[in-house]
Design brief:
single chain, 227 residues, mainly alpha, 2 domains
């Protein structure tokens, strides 16, 4: 039994387990049914216990929730960038669903303190053959690199993606929609050219027009750019 297995089992909620299985149908890991806020609270309560965290990261996991916790704890490691990076890269092949992918990326604020190193890492892992590793790179771009100086690199990244991978395409659309919200004048010419894959073009627009931070006039215009 793992270090956190018993604690997680005490938090389980069977109806939520069924919900989680529907939410992440691709996962190969057994689901206990622990709500995300409870897992975040558990991780946060032990975030200063470096010895316990490292012991947990080194053990083999069985349950979905253990992998979810693993991703959260990576963001709490108080260590050299290179050591955290090594732990992350060992973990990436085990990510088999969007929820663990996105929550892990969102919590990596320790690595984000080194933007040049992290951005270099993002460019490298974008070339992975693993769907959720590529999605992970895109979510890192969304979480930490929506800044004008990165736009050209983001465009290159989007056009280099493998075609037709749903969870990659969704992340790319999400990424570009955030760019439209935060840097409309910089991003809209790309949408106007209609050179993105059809799914990404249309889903980007859909997500952007759902934002309250884009004016109604711009929303109306963006809708005309669907293909």
């Amino acid at each position: 039994m793992g270090i956190y297995t018993e604690e997680l089992k005490k938090l389980f909620d069977e109806p939520y387990a069924a919900f989680t299985r529907k939410l992440v149908p691709d996962t190969r890991y057994p689901v206990l049914g622990v709500r995300v806020p409870a897992m975040k609270s558990l991780a946060k309560s032990d975030k200063s216990n470096e010895k316990k965290i490292k012991a947990f990261l080194s053990e083999k996991h069985r349950y979905y929730e253990e992998f979810f916790l693993h991703g959260l704890f990576l963001g709490y490691l108080d260590d050299e960038y290179e050591n955290v990076s090594r732990e992350l890269n060992e973990f990436l092949p085990y990510i088999d669903n969007w929820a663990i992918c996105d929550s892990t990326a969102a919590n990596l604020k320790n690595m984000a303190k080194h933007p040049e190193k992290l951005f270099s890492e993002v460019k490298r892992i974008l070339n992975s053959d693993h769907v959720y590793t590529v999605r992970f790179a895109l979510v890192l771009l969304l979480d930490y690199f929506v800044k004008a100086e990165y736009f050209n690199e983001v465009k290159k990244a989007v056009f280099s993606l493998p075609a037709g991978e749903y969870y990659i395409d969704m992340a790319a659309s999400w990424l570009l929609s955030v760019w439209l919200v935060k840097e409309y004048d910089l991003t809209s010419p790309l949408i106007e050219k209609k050179i993105l894959p059809k799914f990404i073009q249309n889903k980007t627009i859909q997500k952007a027009v759902e934002s309250f931070r884009i004016s109604d006039d711009k929303k109306s215009y963006l809708k005309t750019l669907k293909i």
